[in-house]
Amino acid sequence: MEPKNENVVTGVLAHLMRFFADLFKSVAESLLVVVGTFIFATTVSAGMLWFHEWPLFLAPVGGFIVLGVMLIFWYDA
After folding, report:
1. Closest CA to 31 of 58, 6, 2, 67
2. Would you state the pLDDT for residue 11?
3. Is 2 helix (H, G, I), strand (E, B) or coil?
4. Which of 51, 55, 67, 76 has the most crowded Cβ, counting Cβ within 10 A?
5. Is the pTM value of this prediction over 0.90?
6. What is the secondary structure of 10-69 as a DSSP string?
7. Rounded Cα distance, 59 and 49, in Å
8. Averaged pLDDT score across all residues of the chain
9. Are 66 and 37 in contact (CB under 8 A)?
10. φ, ψ dihedrals at 39, nearest 5°
11. Which distant-in-sequence residues (6+ apart) come within 8 Å of 19 by Cβ?
């Protein structure tokens, strides 16, 4: 009887580890997309501000605007 219990426990632990690994992978993937989009949008807005000789401390505003619009329309099925 005991070897069967050990198999059940290891099976449950394996499924639990797989669940947390998939969850971590999904969260990390989404976080990379959000951070990458913010960095790209901030860089583009900094280039535009530099070209028009405006203060560069306004550059993150462009990143936050793009990030906000992206998160509003983000559909994760």
Report:
1. 67
2. 77
3. helix
4. 67
5. no
6. HHHHHHHHHHHHHHHHHHHHHHHHHHHHHHHHHHHHHHHHHHTT--GGGHHHHHHHHHHH
7. 7
8. 87
9. yes
10. -65, -45
11. none
Tens digit of pLDDT for each residue in 16-38?
A: 899 999 999 999 998 999 999 99
Give dist(CA 62, CA 54) in Å, integer. Answer: 13
Q: Give residue 71's pLDDT.
A: 86
pLDDT number for residue 8: 66
Separation of alpha carbons 7 and 21, rounded Å: 21
35, burial (CB in 10 Å: exposed 0-12, middle 13-18, buried 19+): exposed
Q: How many residues does the chain have?
A: 77
pLDDT above 90: residue 3: no
